[in-house]
Design brief:
Radius of gyration of chain A: 22 Å
Structural class of chain A: alpha/beta
CATH class of the largest domain in chain A: Alpha Beta
Helix content of chain A: 40-55%
Oligomer: homodimer
CATH topology of the largest domain in chain A: Rossmann fold
CATH superfamily of the largest domain in chain A: NAD(P)-binding Rossmann-like Domain
Strand content of chain A: 5-15%
Distance between the termini of chain A: 51 Å
Protein name (chains A, B): Prephenate/arogenate dehydrogenase family protein
InterPro entries (chains A, B): 6-PGluconate_DH-like_C_sf, NAD(P)-bd_dom_sf, PDH_C, PDH_N, Preph/Arog_dehydrog, Prephen_DH
Pfam families (chains A, B): PDH_C, PDH_N
Bound molecules: NADP nicotinamide-adenine-dinucleotide phosphate
Number of helices of chain A: 12
Keywords (chains A, B): Oxidoreductase
Number of domains of chain A: 2
Order of helices and strands of chain A: EHEHEHEHEHEEEHEHHHHHH
Organism (chains A, B): Marinibaculum pumilum
Chain lengths: ~300, ~300
């Protein structure tokens, strides 16, 4: 290894294969290129427009015609597609993977990855699922950017019996992109993300739909006066519908468990409002401030009010 | 009236009395000063620190020792305090108001204003409730700023039998501050704001509390991985607890009606997840995008993803 800066260091991966070059896949391509994390970046996407656009943007060294073709000869294959596509992609690429290949992904739910990919991969191919806790509400290759993963968490959920080398490779890859890597049990990951991401998205989708269905308040009134708080929910509820359908279907138990807790608490809140229990309301609205403070202190957010939207 | 710029135009109000100089009251003082909307700005706040700070910031021409004192001799009195304080403030100031005075407010709920203030004000004093649909999650005089109301809606809910002059005065005042003024029936206002503001705040408070109470996921995990969506809810749930308690207690019917609709829809969503109804989920997650588009098109929001927080 020649001495000096990051660019001169050996790349984590010789040949990186990206299946899916949308928001996350294209950001991975950009970040891996910018930080010298892969020697060759090959890409495939079932959406021909997205694949052509990623090529046009210069994000890929090689453009492949199928998932099987892109995976062939790769050192690290990363699935950057909705969770519902994993089983079919796994079946398609499995026969073409050479021993020593590491298969990973970026999916928002993790127990399902072991279930859908773990069984079909051949011996000698390691599975190291990953979830970068980073994203936006936008989709497609134009929405991606190289800095998406910087100072964000990336959670790895390797199987219990995983060999150390493939895990270290994926860990090194994400660290090179600027992420802080953590390991977690996949079931626990799914519970944590259900409350920190999946349920917030679902209730945002739900209230936007509720507002959309009202007869007593018109849609144009909802739009006009959305600055009162509703607006923020519409941003979250603008995220990719296929991605969120697949998260619901593939993290069903954890999502339903957290939704049950949420509705239980909401019932108590409704009751406190109905009975005019001011002290109880005040107590509830006061203690939620502490968690905000801790998120700001943990550097996960800035204290600037409303991000200039005010 | 001398010709020329705004500053040379006659102010809308000779003597403006602000009761409460927190986020909204101090922003009003700043905006009225900056735009020449009042000749003299007098202020009172029950919180001595806030009152002293507003004076120190040079926001007030006169600092009063009580609500009654500040209201005496005023042309326009604006209550900028939590809704729960209105009845007592009304009773205190009523005997000191001279005929011709206009009383207004900035409260987030409107039917209760007529109920709490309408009855106690003497003959010859007009009540013109107002609600600027503008704010942040912060409180106190340091959080205010002059531009808060620019290009925001301000909703007036005058009683049906209101004389035209006081309504025109309040309208002119808010227009000078840069707001677009609308009139609405107070009951209808309360329904519209219940769905566009109150219920979004309540479900944000609720999910933050749910996360705070979990045993299966630790608080530090919630904080660490909050970038997945939860973080945005904590901002909304950091708003002033007293203000939101008072909104719940004073807009009870509309809030409960909208919460009932929300929970009904959420039950259907839970059921669709439980039964794995992918098409139904996809349909729901797709149609909510349209409303976001319309909010952006209406200029109530920018399309920039996640406001740079990504
Ligand atoms: N967005 C986020 O904030 C975020 C954050 C963390 C993790 N993730 C995870 O990242 C993954 C991708 O999400 P994204 O936001 O990057 O979505 P995206 O922008 O829509 O990109 C996904 C790409 O994969 C393509 N695709 C779909 N099925 C395919 C298949 N069978 N084979 C090959 N390509 C296929 C899509 O084409 P079409 O457009 O034609 O479907 C699209 O071009 C998901 O698993 C999601 O859970 C997302
Ligand atoms: N914040 C928003 O986004 C927003 C938007 C639109 C409308 N509003 C409405 O604006 C009003 C004020 O909200 P805000 O955000 O400006 O709150 P704020 O920053 O907390 O200011 C309210 C001020 O009034 C003081 N106060 C409380 N009771 C009083 C009384 N009886 N007499 C005199 N002063 C009293 C408070 O003192 P303490 O701090 O000691 O309580 C505080 O200094 C509320 O009715 C709210 O519904 C708020």
């Amino acid at each position: 290894m020649s001495g000096g800066g990051t660019a001169a260091a050996a790349p984590a991966v010789r040949r990186l294969a990206l299946i899916g070059v949308g928001l996350i896949g294209s950001s991975l391509a950009r970040a891996a290129r910018a930080r010298g994390a892969a020697e060759v970046i090959a890409g495939y996407d079932a959406n021909p427009q997205h694949l052509a656009r990623a090529a046009e943007l210069g994000l890929l060294d090689e453009v492949a015609g199928s998932a099987a073709a892109v995976a062939e000869g790769a050192d690290l294959v990363i699935l950057c597609t909705p969770l519902g596509s994993y089983a079919a992609i796994g079946a398609e690429i499995a026969p073409r993977l050479r021993p020593g290949t590491v298969v990973s992904d970026v999916g928002s739910s993790k127990a399902c990855v072991l279930r859908d990919l773990g069984a079909v991969l051949p011996d000698g191919v390691a599975l190291v699922p990953a979830h970068p806790v980073a994203g936006t509400e936008q989709s497609g290759p134009d929405a991606g950017f190289a800095e998406l993963f910087v100072n964000r968490w990336c959670i790895l959920t390797p199987p219990e019996d995983a060999a150390p080398e493939p895990v270290a490779l994926v860990e090194r890859f994400w660290a090179l992109l600027g992420s802080t890597v953590e390991r977690m049990d996949p079931q626990h990951h799914d519970l944590v993300l259900a409350i920190t991401s999946h349920v917030p998205h679902l209730i945002a989708y739900n209230i936007v739909a509720t507002a959309d269905d009202l007869e007593s308040v018109t849609k144009s009134e909802v739009i006009k006066y959305s600055a009162g708080g509703f607006r923020d929910f519409t941003r979250i509820a603008a995220s990719d519908p296929v991605m969120w359908r697949d998260v619901c279907l593939n993290n069903r138990e954890a999502v339903l468990e957290m939704l049950a807790r949420f509705t239980e608490d909401l019932t108590a809140l409704q009751r406190a409002i109905r009975w005019g229990e001011g002290d109880r309301l005040l107590e509830l609205f006061t203690r939620t401030r502490a968690i905000r403070r801790q998120i700001i202190d943990a550097g996960q957010e800035t204290a600037a009010p409303d991000f200039g939207r005010r």
